[in-house]
């Protein structure tokens, strides 16, 4: 990445971060907003209807197909928290995800390191793709579902650099109250949820200085985070495609991939599903925003409800199939 490109991005970064701030969002689903936003909200919902309201249609479209579940972690399975180290999944959500994985091939694709996500979720028998899909592990042998094995690490050559930059980044940002740096193995996440808005520009400038010294890294942003990643063509969408290929079902017409996520990094996966013309994304958001997702849910509690209904639907379907077999016998 050229220095001028980095500087150009940083120049508009603070305004972008302000636009993403909960205090400045254009509109949301809250009843507190004035009626002038009703038309805008109605138009958005028409394009991205509630996955709960459309559940029967979704299941009708899934009839006869193998559903593959892809799930983001923060903001999807867990609430967004002030302390990123305390974004714990609830026991109830863990149990639901466990049931989902019992009936459907399931993967969790997160910006967190794979080890961190595994420590939060504590479930075996599913695929984990941490660092935005740059560290993929999973039960590669169906007969050994309790053994998670490394499947793919496209940025492994960057590990020494990442280990070096994390210390530089911590040193550069330590003077900014509330800023923290999280080492997510193949990417570095700068959290500024606890940083006063007046300090955002200074934080962005420090990140810019690091990027100048390490041009092989690129800058991305998410919900109250800035991230430094290897400059390779890899993201959550690429991870989704890799997993479909590794499962041997990428070319199958009888597969329905479903991706649920809340962050702008999840848009890469939503876009892949749109371009494939197969499967769909569900965006988790209370605010109106541009998205490639076909459906929407408002928060992790609605994600949990959707997953519960999915499991119930599958159990009912299996029960009906068994009943038909018994009648034939």
TrEMBL record:
One of its GO terms (molecular function) is trehalose-phosphatase activity. Keywords: Hydrolase, Stress response. CDD domains: HAD_TPP (cd01627). Its cofactor is a divalent metal cation. InterPro entries: HAD-like_sf, HAD-SF_hydro_IIB, HAD_sf, OTSB-like, Trehalose_PPase. SUPFAM superfamilies: HAD-like (SSF56784). Coiled coil: none annotated. GO terms for biological process: trehalose biosynthetic process. It comes from the Eukaryota. Its EC number is 3.1.3.12. Pfam families: Trehalose_PPase. It catalyses: alpha,alpha-trehalose 6-phosphate + H2O = alpha,alpha-trehalose + phosphate. Pathway: Glycan biosynthesis; trehalose biosynthesis. Removes the phosphate from trehalose 6-phosphate to produce free trehalose. Trehalose accumulation in plant may improve abiotic stress tolerance. Belongs to the trehalose phosphatase family. This is Trehalose 6-phosphate phosphatase.
């Amino acid at each position: 990445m050229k220095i001028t490109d980095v500087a150009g991005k940083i120049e508009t970064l603070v305004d972008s971060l302000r636009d993403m701030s909960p205090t400045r969002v254009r509109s949301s689903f809250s009843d507190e907003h004035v009626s002038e936003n009703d038309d805008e909200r109605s138009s958005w919902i028409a394009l991205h209807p509630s996955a709960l309201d459309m559940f029967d249609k979704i299941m009708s479209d899934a009839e006869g197909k193998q559903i593959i579940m892809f799930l983001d972690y923060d903001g999807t399975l867990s609430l967004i928290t002030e302390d990123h180290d305390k974004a714990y999944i609830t026991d109830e959500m863990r149990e639901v995800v466990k049931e989902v994985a019992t009936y459907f091939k399931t993967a969790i694709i997160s910006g967190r390191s794979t080890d961190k996500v595994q420590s939060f979720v504590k479930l075996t028998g599913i695929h984990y793709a941490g660092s935005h899909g740059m560290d993929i592990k999973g039960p590669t042998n169906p007969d050994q579902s309790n053994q998670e094995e490394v499947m793919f690490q496209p940025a492994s050559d960057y590990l020494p650099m990442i280990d070096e930059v994390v210390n530089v980044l911590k040193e550069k940002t330590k003077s900014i109250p509330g800023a923290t740096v999280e080492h997510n193995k193949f990417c570095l996440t700068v959290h500024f949820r606890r940083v006063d808005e007046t300090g955002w520009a200074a934080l962005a400038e420090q990140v810019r200085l690091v990027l100048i010294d390490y041009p092989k890294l690129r800058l991305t942003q998410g919900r109250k985070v800035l991230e430094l990643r290897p400059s390779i063509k890899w993201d959550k969408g690429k991870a989704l495609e890799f997993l479909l290929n590794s499962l041997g079902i990428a070319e199958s017409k009888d597969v329905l991939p479903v991706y649920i996520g809340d962050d702008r990094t999840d848009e890469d996966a939503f876009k892949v599903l749109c371009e494939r013309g197969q499967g769909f994304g569900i965006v988790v958001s209370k605010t109106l925003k541009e998205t490639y997702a076909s459906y929407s849910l408002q928060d992790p509690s609605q994600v949990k409800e959707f997953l519960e209904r999915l499991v119930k639907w599958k159990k009912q379907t299996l029960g009906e199939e068994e009943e038909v077999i018994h009648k034939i016998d």
